[in-house]
Specification:
The structure holds 2 protein chains of 2 kinds.
Chain A: H1 5-34, H2 39-64, H3 72-92, H4 99-125, H5 130-149, E1 151-156, E2 159-164, E3 174-178, H6 192-210, H7 213-223, H8 225-230, H9 235-258, H10 271-284, H11 289-305, H12 307-311, H13 313-329, H14 331-341
Antiparallel strand pairs in A: 1-2, 1-3
Helix pairs in contact in A: 1-6, 2-6, 2-9, 2-10, 2-11, 3-4, 3-5, 3-9, 4-9, 6-9, 7-9, 10-11, 10-13
Chain B: H1 2-31, H2 38-54, H3 60-83, H4 91-113, E1 118-119, E2 129-132, E3 135-138, H5 139-161, H6 163-173, H7 175-180, H8 185-210, E4 213-214, H9 220-233, H10 238-258, H11 264-278
Antiparallel strand pairs in B: 1-4, 2-3
Classes of the chains: A mainly alpha, B mainly alpha.
Amino acid sequence: MKMTKAKRVRLIYNIVTFALVIGAFIILQSMIANKTISRSLKGQLVPICCWIVMAVSLNLVIGISGELSLGHAGFMSVGAYTGAVVSGALLNIWDIQDTTLRLVIAIAAGGILAGIVGALIGIPVLRLRGDYLAIVTLAFGEIIRSLVNVLYIGAGDGKLHFSFLNKELPEGVTMLVDGAKGAVKIKPISTFAAGFILILITLVVVLNLVNSRAGRAIKACRDNRIAAESMGVNVTKYKMMAFVTAAVLAGMAGALYGLNSSTVVPTQFTFNQSINVLVFVVLGGLGNVLGSIVSATLLTVLPEVLRAFADYRMLVYAVVLILVMIFTNNPTIRAFVNRLISPFRKKDSVGGEAR
Amino acid sequence: MIFLDNLINGLSLGSIYAIIALGYTMVYGIAKMLNFAHGDVIMIGAYIAFCGLQYWGLPPVVAILVAMAVCTLLGVTIEGLAYRPLRQAASLAVLITAIGMSYLLQNIALMIWGANPKSFPRTFINNSILRLGGLSMSSATVFTILTNIVVMVVLNLFISHTKLGKAMRCVSEDRGAAELMGIKVNRTISATFAIGSALAAIAGVLLCSSYPILQPTTGSMPGIKAFTAAVFGGIGSIPGAMLGGVLLGVIEIFGKAYISTELGDALVFAVLIVVLLVKPTGLLGKPVREKV
């Protein structure tokens, strides 16, 4: 069977993406084995994996599905809290010492709960459009943050104790979530290998979804909702599919992130964090998975390497957001750039892939 | 008595939201974009007024006027530099630009004034306590409510009777047709930003008179809530922004007083979600028919 050109391009793109991730993992693992890796970079490995998954999953919502979600950190916090509680419960109630098993169950639970929350949010929210959707996802992120601020969970007597608003737990329980103090006394069990596997899962899910029938439907809804609807595409269903998938992935990333440190506090998952991920996505290119991976990695490592830059990080991010948007969307500037690069373009690429 | 106290506090907070919401609703109605940076223009206005009062020793009225002038200039500059090149672009691109602008303003404020909260000085707005029967309230409360009423009346007169006001309504109705009729669309949009930003400066001063803690993030939460208020009232509608703002302020204060202090913000956002589900056009908004 002969492959069409678009298919071949896609295949090459996917192979490059996977090769890059796997190659980076092998290099980093051998660096860890040789102990040639710097301490600060080693500490950053798991967070980098989390931010890559966050960026790729947000790209699914923004770039592929075309909806601006500003509450992505909210799903991450759901995952982080669930992960911490589940891991704590497994250790304190069922006395499971195997860290790998705990980590896997915690990540799965984080993903599932974030997915449920995503579905609950998605049902009302995805009926809205454009700016409204952005502001409502933002509102949901803030609501989740307010709620976990007054949530108390303790483990003891062979079961979990929940209380809300007021700390009314029986004496002698092990606190897992302590209101504004966040999830406390977490035993860090995340590993770089787990992060790597999570990235692979994310890539398989996202790339397959994008290149499937459902993915084409999602992109059709993005490009022209009315046209897609009149072709019989169920817009809400496909938008929901992208949104919930992204929520599940963000929840899994959150669980991994939460179990990488000893505490998780609600202020880690503010609106600023959502914007951070948004910057990764925009800078990497809307709809470009490989771009998200590269920009998430670089923008997580750079502030650590360039201390002087760290103070101006958010300022630079803001300017980058504005400039990227103006340069990619202003018709005059685009025409100008196209004229500059057109002599270097191959002739056959002009009529190539339809966009 | 506690009920009345709460009600008056709610009205005062709601008035601040209403004035901010005016900026959102006018820009949304005319430029069809969500100006995310509006909340941060409030913060800049409050900082300028703070500097005027604290460092430059200006009389309060002059300080407020200076703040209004700076914010007007800022609003027009933001529109010209960041939003105008994207006039034809998709709304996603404009929204991301506006978020970037919001962050830019916050970080500029952080560099100029630092992260430490500043305490807003006392002025004629908030230096006395008024007693009315058994009620005692800060003069800031009364000033805020009065200012809100004045702004509402003046703005309504402006929109319905002046030439520029009519131009604004035209552009909001149909930009293309307005352009064909010889209305300068870009100039009208700039004027809208100017008015919205001047109102933001007033809102900033009122906000910091009631809640005198000033830091680079001061504007973002009231900004988001005011946008909620604008949606609640029906975005694009000026009386709607007023109504939505006041109602939202009352809901927030009552929620904090009778349900839970921590959940006040969550309650406000829950209101937004319910409104958007039940009546997405808001209380006073007009339904928009979709054109293919």
